TrEMBL record:
<feature type="domain" description="Pyrimidine nucleoside phosphorylase C-terminal">
    <location>
        <begin position="339"/>
        <end position="413"/>
    </location>
</feature>
<dbReference type="Pfam" id="PF00591">
    <property type="entry name" value="Glycos_transf_3"/>
</dbReference>
<dbReference type="GO" id="GO:0006213">
    <property type="term" value="P:pyrimidine nucleoside metabolic process"/>
</dbReference>
<dbReference type="InterPro" id="IPR017459">
    <property type="entry name" value="Glycosyl_Trfase_fam3_N_dom"/>
</dbReference>
<dbReference type="InterPro" id="IPR036320">
    <property type="entry name" value="Glycosyl_Trfase_fam3_N_dom_sf"/>
</dbReference>
<dbReference type="InterPro" id="IPR000312">
    <property type="entry name" value="Glycosyl_Trfase_fam3"/>
</dbReference>
<keyword id="KW-0328">Glycosyltransferase</keyword>
<dbReference type="InterPro" id="IPR018090">
    <property type="entry name" value="Pyrmidine_PPas_bac/euk"/>
</dbReference>
<comment type="subunit">
    <text>Homodimer.</text>
</comment>
<dbReference type="InterPro" id="IPR000053">
    <property type="entry name" value="Thymidine/pyrmidine_PPase"/>
</dbReference>
<dbReference type="Pfam" id="PF02885">
    <property type="entry name" value="Glycos_trans_3N"/>
</dbReference>
<comment type="similarity">
    <text>Belongs to the thymidine/pyrimidine-nucleoside phosphorylase family.</text>
</comment>
<dbReference type="GO" id="GO:0009032">
    <property type="term" value="F:thymidine phosphorylase activity"/>
</dbReference>
<dbReference type="GO" id="GO:0006206">
    <property type="term" value="P:pyrimidine nucleobase metabolic process"/>
</dbReference>
<dbReference type="Pfam" id="PF07831">
    <property type="entry name" value="PYNP_C"/>
</dbReference>
<keyword id="KW-0808">Transferase</keyword>
<dbReference type="InterPro" id="IPR017872">
    <property type="entry name" value="Pyrmidine_PPase_CS"/>
</dbReference>
Length: 431
């Protein structure tokens, strides 16, 4: 088949800071998915996009082309409105786990396609797989059955959804081209728009443990995604939230499931509960649902826990099986008494990853029990030799590298010193 364009002309245009036409963009994404544009050509174009950017029209067309590479899901047969949440990822960010059943308990349908962890940020599917028997891969028919029975489903995106993004994301990951706003925004939004949700709340993280550590860049990413979603007919809004300190008191797969169960039982750490409730209220508002029982009450009275248990068993999970516990433990203690002034999310995330909670490359197995328990957070008073962190792993030879990553991961100062940290919500962006 004769091709409409030559990849080298498109690469050269972006290299020279020219705008790509709609036809050029459509062809490039389609030809790459078909294997006509080679990986080395696409790598070069991605780097030119990272360096020279794209305007709003180009980003929107690139997103449309990625959606068109696969199927578009449809939930019109459901008797409830659909709303989804997407987080750009962070350390200890287990919010999807209590949030999806909570929002379902309050009357919306939540089709939550989630991912696995790569690098220092954890993945929702890895966390759920620490529950005995739970399965992440569902056919579209199975997914529909779970959402009809339970109101929420959390599962992996099928191979048919935005296949262009799967190929592009794998290439970006090994070519230093992940951190480009046009590429991140189009990657996330192509999957969310193809997923067919009627509304979407984005939780764009900022701070050391996030993809983007500068709040200005995080807000720009949030605004770009909100515009893409609304232009495609998905009611989209975003919160830019703090990821300078880990969320909650656990980082790691089974450890985070344990904390989720605490939240669903009406307890749990205050930051996790606060963010879960903020996002639940945003999601319900986005689809115009005024729940008879408030999200705060649905956590306290067991309604959200009931949906969780139903959802887990509908996907083969054993709610009553004990969660994995790592074989080995070691403790990191306070070297002085005083106030805990800081705790670096990135360093804690890297240490948990080195303990086996995350993977070095795609496809590797993760340890269900590995991770870190946090016993004090910034603002807490601590005494010398008090345990601040407990490290968990199945392989004790992982401790040295994890402890190395934790150098300078927290600081202790005088009792009267002021803690400098980001507020939980930095900005709210609506279309
Ligand atoms: N998550 C995605 O799905 N894509 C990106 O580019 C970054 C994070």
């Amino acid at each position: 088949m004769s091709e409409r364009f030559a990849a080298v002309e498109i690469i050269s245009a972006k290299r020279d800071k020219l705008e790509l036409s709609n036809e050029q963009i459509e062809w490039t994404v389609d030809a790459y998915t078909r294997g006509v544009v080679a990986d080395e050509q696409m790598s070069s174009l991605l780097m030119a996009i990272l360096l020279n950017g794209m305007n709003d029209r180009e980003i929107s067309k690139w997103t449309d082309a990625m959606i068109a590479s696969g199927e578009k899901m449809n939930w019109s047969m459901l008797d409830r409105l659909t709303v989804d949440k997407h987080s750009t990822g962070g350390v200890g960010d287990k919010i999807t786990l209590p949030l999806a059943p909570l929002v379902a308990a309050c009357g919306a349908a939540v089709p939550q396609l989630s991912g696995r962890g790569l690098g220092h940020t954890g993945g929702t599917l890895d966390k759920l797989e620490s529950i005995k028997g739970w399965k992440a891969n569902l056919s579209n028919t199975e997914m529909l059955k779970v959402i009809q029975e339970c109101g929420a489903v959390i599962c992996a995106a099928g191979a048919g959804l935005a296949p262009a993004d799967k190929k592009l994301y794998a290439l970006r990951d090994v070519t230093g081209t992940v951190e480009a706003i046009p590429l991140i925004a189009s990657s996330i939004m192509s999957k969310k728009i193809a997923e067919g949700t009627s509304a979407l709340v984005l939780d764009v993280k900022t701070g050391s443990g996030a993809f983007m550590s500068d709040p200005k860049n995080s807000a720009l990413l949030a605004r770009t995604m909100v515009n893409l979603g609304n232009a495609a007919g998905v009611k989209t809004r975003a919160l830019v939230t703090a990821m300078d300190v880990p969320l909650g008191l656990t980082v790691g797969n089974a450890l985070e499931i344990r904390e989720t169960l605490e939240v669903l039982a009406g307890g749990g750490p205050s930051d996790v509960v606060e963010l879960t409730l903020l996002l639940a209220n945003e999601m319900l508002d986005a689809v115009g649902i005024k729940p008879k029982v408030s999200p705060a009450d649905a956590l306290k009275n067991g309604m959200a826990m009931d949906v969780w248990r139903k959802m887990i068993s509908a996907q083969g999970g054993d709610n009553d099986a004990a969660l994995a516990v790592a074989r080995e433990k070691t403790e990191i203690k306070a070297t002085a008494s005083g106030k805990l002034l800081s705790m670096d999310a990135k360093k804690i995330g890297v240490a948990a990853w080195r303990l086996g909670a995350g993977r070095q490359k795609q496809g590797e197995a993760v340890q269900a029990g590995a991770g870190i328990e946090i016993h004090a957070k910034p603002g807490d008073l601590v005494v010398k030799d008090q345990t601040i962190l407990t490290l968990h792993t199945d392989e004790s030879n992982r401790f040295d590298r994890a402890v190395e990553a934790l150098t300078g991961s927290f600081s202790i100062g005088g009792k009267d010193e002021v803690v400098q940290r980001l507020p939980l919500v930095i900005e709210r962006i609506e279309g």
